[in-house]
Amino acid sequence: MPNLFILTLQLALVLAVCRAVGWLFQKIGQPKVVGEMFAGIALGPSLLGWIAPHAAAYLFPPSSLGFLNALSQVGVVVFMFLVGLGINPKELQKEGHAAVLTSHVSITAPFVLAAFLSLYLYPRLSDDSVHFTSFALFMGAAMSITAFPVLARILDERNMLGSRLGTVAIACAAVDDVTGWCILAYIVVLIRAQHSSTSIWWTIGGILVFGLAMIHGVRRLLRGFERVYRAKGAISENLMALMLLLVLASSLFTEYLGIHLLFGAFLMGAIMPKEQKFVRYVLDRFETITITLLLPLFFAFTGLRTNIAAVKGPEMWMYCGLIILVATMGKLGGSTLAAWLSGMPLREAAGLGTLMNTRGLMELVILNIGLDIGVISPTLFSMMVMMALCTTFMTTPALALICPNHVLQGSADKAEAERVGAASMHLQNGEGAAA
Amino acid sequence: MSTTNRRFIIAYILLVGVPLLGLGGVLKAGRHLRAPISIDGTWKVETRANHAAAQPCDQAIASLLNSSLVVSQSGKALELTLNGTSKTTVAAELDGSELRASVGARAGCSAEQPVMLMASIDPKAEPKSLTGSFSVANCASCSPLEFRAVRQVKVQSGGEH
Predict the structure, then answer these.
(1) Which of A83, A150, A235, A299 has its Cβ near the most Cβ atoms within 10 Å?
(2) What would the mean pLDDT of A349-369 be, rounded to a whole number?
(3) Has this prediction a pTM greater than 0.90?
(4) Chain A residue with minimum CA distance to B22
């Protein structure tokens, strides 16, 4: 039985601290979610446990953490559904070659660099219960992820969602996330297969059948939600409950297949209808409680597992610095280079690279899975959390430096002019042909 | 094929295809790497019953260990939680199959008499076992506390996430 007093106290504390720090971060021009991530870390052994160990032991006794974790995981399941819901594959098709090349390079560059770094880190920060392949692939997936939701928030706050830079960034982040999660699913299967009597081929076969059934079967049925929304302008509570039930069923199925609950939630979101108003409506229904209460619990739970004090001595800090450097070089450098080679002006390309380097919450979700399945050690987890915080924190100031608003406005006007020019040319050609 | 398409394909091969080949090479090279022995988890401890507690420092050693020892591992760096009468957390280092830690001075021992932990792991035993002792440095009359620990079966926690 949970100690309800302690659990309620934890909820109140996490909520208050996350709101306060989120507000403070907004004052310095950072997205609120970045502040909430820092607040979560502050509630753990890295700050609260360090300055007030007795208070930390009272507020977060080990026996209470299971309930806190369970609540936070419910939040992450719903959140992953919302992330999948926000992803629209058609965005990528609209952006053409530039987005395809940039998104693929923004995955391969950090992935390969992380694998090279693993050659150095594996004998130093891992142990023989983890195979090198699993370790390197996990590091690759963790470094190549982009925080799609944080990125969308930053673009929205800077009025960049409609710009060319914004649309390419959103398209690339969507591809990165889908690819990253597919790789992670493979790693989870690989690691769980070592501890399970079920054949890995059985699991992979099951996942393929499930994926195909979802994409080609269930997706058609889901259009019914959109039809109801279009006809009535709203979705009844019963239908919302059914939608949630489908998310939970999909999550349970992927967990049963040996991957993870979160993959099912993400996939269900990804195959939902993508009509803009419908997506906004569903997001509005689910976001409030998830983002206000449940996600801060996840930040706090992550913070309770992160111990910056475990990164001791110059050697460990050097490993941490290397991780941050390689992650930034791979993501920022790789995306910038690919975007520039695709014809984007250098400044805009660097802006895109900076945006792609945002890892945020998605990184924390992946790292928690890595720690749970034992592919990374607690110290490496703490280092990677610091990398996530660092790369997410640097995005807004770096973007303001590289792409000030007047530069973006100029490039947006130019892009708009090109689009109008191309459209009128197309119209003239069409009319000519008709004549 | 248009020039744009040709340029795209060349850029794609150079920026995506070649690095992926490199990734294959790295994964192959990494298979030969050796990481430290895995010893993290909870260990069930048995101390030798006939430990002589003649010196006050001996009693301090005896109170260090009870029935379990928790090891948190990051490569060669370890953190040991000794579940004795008072919970003590110490940093330790793993060198091959040898484990070393300085527990520091304990109540009853003088500052010049730090308690040391030395143990060796039998990597082939299943479940893994650890044999070692706590001893007091610079104390000829103190008797070491010998112990044997067996690792408890690790529960794969992936499912609880």
Answers:
(1) A299
(2) 90
(3) no
(4) A112
A239-277: b or e for each residue (b if 16 or more CB lie within 10 Å)?
Answer: ebeebbebbbebbebbbebbbbbbbbbbbbbbbbbbeee
Q: How far is B10 from chain A (nearest CA, A)?
A: 11
Exposed, middle or buried by CB within 10 Å (0-12, 13-18, 19+), for A98? buried
Distance of alpha carbon B152 from alpha carbon A368, whole angstroms: 23
Query: Within 10 Å of residue A5's Cβ, how many Cβ atoms?
Result: 8
Spatial separation of the C-alpha atoms in residues A391 and A144, rounded to whole Å: 12
The alpha carbon of residue A226 is apart from the nearest alpha carbon of chain B, in Å, by: 32
Tokens of A177: 């996330």
| Helices of type H across A234-377 | 237-257, 261-270, 276-289, 295-305, 313-328, 334-341, 346-356, 360-372
Would you say B105 and B114 are in contact if contact means Cβ atoms under 8 Å apart?
yes
3-state secondary structure A26-50: HHCCCCHHHHHHHHHHHCCCCCHHH
Q: Which residue do the tokens 């002792």 mark?
A: B133
Angstrom distances, CA of residue B37 to CA of A129, A296, A305, B94, B152: 8, 36, 23, 8, 16
CB–CB of B161 and A369 under 8 A? yes
Test mutation, A54, A72, A97, chain B, max B CBs within 10 A: A97
Q: Give residue-wise pLDDT tens across range A232-277.
A: 999 999 999 999 999 999 999 998 887 788 889 999 999 999 998 9
From B8, B72, B154, residue closest to A378, measured CB to CB? B72
The amino acid at residue A47 is L
CA distance A12 to A335: 41
Count Cα atoms within 13 angstroms, Cβ side, for A132. 24
| Structure token pair of residue A292 | 């206000």
DSSP letters spanning B79-106: EEEEESSSEEEEEEEEETTEEEEEEE--
Contact between A327 and A387 under an 8 Å Cβ cutoff? The reply is yes
Which amino acid type is present at position B147? Answer: F
Contact A155, A161 (CB under 8 A): yes
Q: How far apart are CA B60 and CA A374, in angstroms?
A: 35
pLDDT given at position A277:
93
Q: What are phi and psi of B117, to 5 degrees?
A: -120, 130
- In sequence order, the 6+-apart residues with CB closer than 8 A to the CB of A283 are A82, A85, A86
* Measured CA distances, A290 to A27, A183, A239, A243 (Å): 23, 26, 19, 15
Provide the CA A366 distance to its chain's centre, in angstroms.
8
Contact B74 A69 (CB under 8 A): no
Beta bridge partners of A360: none
Q: Which of 21-60 (B) contact A at CB < 8 A?
A: 22-23, 26-27, 29-31, 33-40
**ipTM over 0.85 threshold:** no
Report yes or no: B102 and B88 within 8 Å, Cβ to Cβ: no
Question: In which residue are the tokens 């507690």 written?
Answer: B53
Instruction: Locate all alpha helices (DSSP H) within A2-88, ordered by sequence.
Output: 4-27, 32-42, 48-51, 53-59, 65-86
What number is the average pLDDT over the span A283-300?
90
